[in-house]
Amino acid sequence: MEMATKPPVVTPLSVNASAEARKIFEAYQQNPTPDTFNLLLLGHSGCGKTSLLSTAKKPVLIDSFDPGGTKAEMLQPLIEKGDVLVRTFEDDDLLSSDPQKGALVRWRDAYNASLNAKLFDQVGTYVIDSASTFVDCLSSQILRKEGRMIPDMTAASSDKLHGLRRQDYDTFYRMFRNFLGKWLALPCDFILTGHVSKDVNEVTGALVKRFLVIGQSAEKVPPLFDEVWFLDVVGEKQERKLITSFDSRKFEGKSRRAGTKFDPKGEPADLKHMLKLMGLPTDDKPSLMV
Question: Residues 28-80: pLDDT tens digits?
Fold first, then answer.
């Protein structure tokens, strides 16, 4: 004999609950950055990640930590016009022990000056190029503050190469995570470029391409982004394609905004094309060169 199920108890909606729900709804609707776009752009060295930035919403502001990274041919006319603005932090002495002279200190001062000037309200896209070299500067700065920047850090072991002890990894991640939170909240599009390493997926056993960065950041950083894409050169014509899913090229990519709108075999290497597919604004902001 089946037991009769009791009907669910319906609690009348209180005035306080309704008011709180309305407050949450209106706060979400007033979110100042619903149409901004953030991307972790990954690829092998020399695949054209920096050149791809020429297709981003302009003006583009690049904070470059990669030596010679902004010499890409496609960027030069845009740099000359002022459509792409470049600040270089490529000359960090990774073994310097002075905590006031690192590239990270100079970058932080420049970044804060841009915040105070509300520059990011006028910029179409902000770029950190790249995560790999930014991380080197961040790691060195941690060591400078700890007084552990010594010449033998160029030794062969991985820990000594980065100058970090195991207990430093949590400090490193929290600092990197703090910067990421600020970048992702900017009122403009944000792109972080990075390199990849080959690793084994723990679930499928497949060899996959993943974000190359030290410590737990390799696992914890990609989920913070709406988009994680891999730039690759494919086919006989050696076309550059943006790979956005895991199945297409054994790459653990994703897209929160596009759903199934992207071709799993890859999309043309054009950021405005991708923005259009996602239904996001593609218009440049006015030039800052006035």
Answer: 877 755 688 999 999 988 889 999 999 999 999 999 998 887 888 889 999 99
Residue 203 lies in a domain: yes
DSSP secondary structure string for all residues of 98-123: -TTSSHHHHHHHHHHHHHHTTGGGT-
Token pair, residue 135, equals 């991380």
Residue 184 belongs to some domain of the structure: yes
Give the CA angle between residues 260, 264, 268 to the nearest 5°: 100
Give the span between the Cα atoms of 131 and 231, in whole angstroms: 15
Overall number of domains in the chain: 1
Closest by CA to 288, choosing from 87, 83, 110, is 83
Residue 45: cis peptide before it, omega within 30 degrees of 0: no
Structural domain including 157 reads: 36-277
CATH number at residue 249: 3.40.50
Give the predicted TM-score (pTM) of the model: 0.85
